[in-house]
Specification:
Layout (H helix, E strand, L loop, with lengths): L1 H22 L5 E6 L27 E4 L7 H6 L2 H8 L5 E5 L25 E3 L5 E3 L1 H14 L3 E5 L18 H13 L3 E4 L1 H12 L1 H7 L9 H17 L21
Parallel strand pairs: 1-2, 1-3, 3-6, 6-7
Antiparallel strand pairs: 4-5
Helix pairs in contact: 4-5, 6-8
This protein binds 2-acetamido-2-deoxy-beta-D-glucopyranose.
Keywords: Hydrolase, Signal
Organism: Phialocephala subalpina
Protein name: Probable rhamnogalacturonan acetylesterase
Length: 263
């Protein structure tokens, strides 16, 4: 007779479980938001974005590459692409955000619709046409906070380096966007993390040397070949594993199996 007392509790538990499952996907989605260095098709013929190779290193997740060539933190925002992502993610999903290549440049005399207002806080700039432009930090902080509010985890990734060996000697100095990325992560708080992708790629490229690395940049100093992009994707995984990021739980590879050292 004791078991009758237990049954209702079990029945409630059985009913409650599916409700919780509906909020998460059986297979979390990993959305990629970025520019040509991440996008399918890269920056044109002979190049490819690193996001195309990321799925080969992950298991138990579905990678959705929403990176688009030519975009910046500002234009990705203005085109409603972050809003679409915010409306799409569910609890347990991941969003990797990597911008910087189209965010520099001046707002005067001509605004290209991509350049951000320079600054590490909530500064604004007004273009000649009267458009109010926010900083990289503001655009990405707003996006990250809204994605996290939906239950997603956000990885802010520093931009890939331009060819660090283009002078014949390999060296790398991070640009201001790496610092901005760290500020975005601090602003967004729990649920946001940082991968210093630029530094991991640079370290790997410097160890490969100028001859190999020059061959990875077939058309200019920004866009990598498919083989180069595969190395760029591996460097991201190395950074993710070294940081013991939540997403690293879905890695097919161990930290030691990927070239390079943790920084
Ligand atoms: C991880 O392992 C998979 C399966 O062996 C392989 O295809 C992929 O290239 C590896 N990734 C890295 C970054 O080494």
């Amino acid at each position: 007779m004791k078991s009758y007392a237990v049954l209702p509790a079990l029945a409630v538990a059985a009913l409650a479980a599916p409700t919780e499952d509906i909020e998460k996907r059986a297979t979390p989605h990993v959305y990629l938001a970025g520019d040509s260095t991440m996008a399918l098709g890269g920056g044109g013929t002979g190049t490819q974005g690193w996001g195309v190779y990321l799925p080969y290193s992950l298991t138990g997740v579905t990678v959705v590459n929403d990176a688009i060539a030519g975009r910046s933190a500002r234009s990705y925002t203005d085109e409603g692409r972050f809003t679409t992502l915010i409306n799409t993610v569910v609890s347990g999903d991941y969003v990797i955000i990597e911008f910087g290549h189209n965010d520099g440049g001046s707002l005067t005399p001509t605004d290209n619709g991509r350049s951000d207002c320079v600054g590490s806080g909530s500064e604004t700039c007004t273009t000649a046409a009267g458009v109010v432009v926010q900083t990289y930090v503001t655009y990405l902080t707003n996006a990250a906070k809204s994605l996290i509010a939906k239950g997603a985890k956000v990885i802010i990734s520093s931009p890939t380096p331009d060819n660090p060996c283009e002078t014949g000697t390999c060296s790398y100095t991070p640009n201001r966007f790496t610092g901005y990325c760290k500020i975005v992560v601090a602003n967004a708080g729990t649920g946001a993390s940082f991968v210093d992708h630029g530094q991991y790629v640079a370290n790997e490229f410097i160890s490969l040397g100028a001859t190999v690395v020059d061959s990875y940049y077939p058309i200019d100093h920004t866009h990598t070949s498919p083989i180069g992009a595969n190395v760029v994707a591996a460097a991201f995984m190395k950074g993710l594993l070294c940081a013991n990021d939540n997403l690293a739980a879905y890695s097919k590879n161990t930290t030691a199996s990927i070239a390079g050292s943790c920084i």
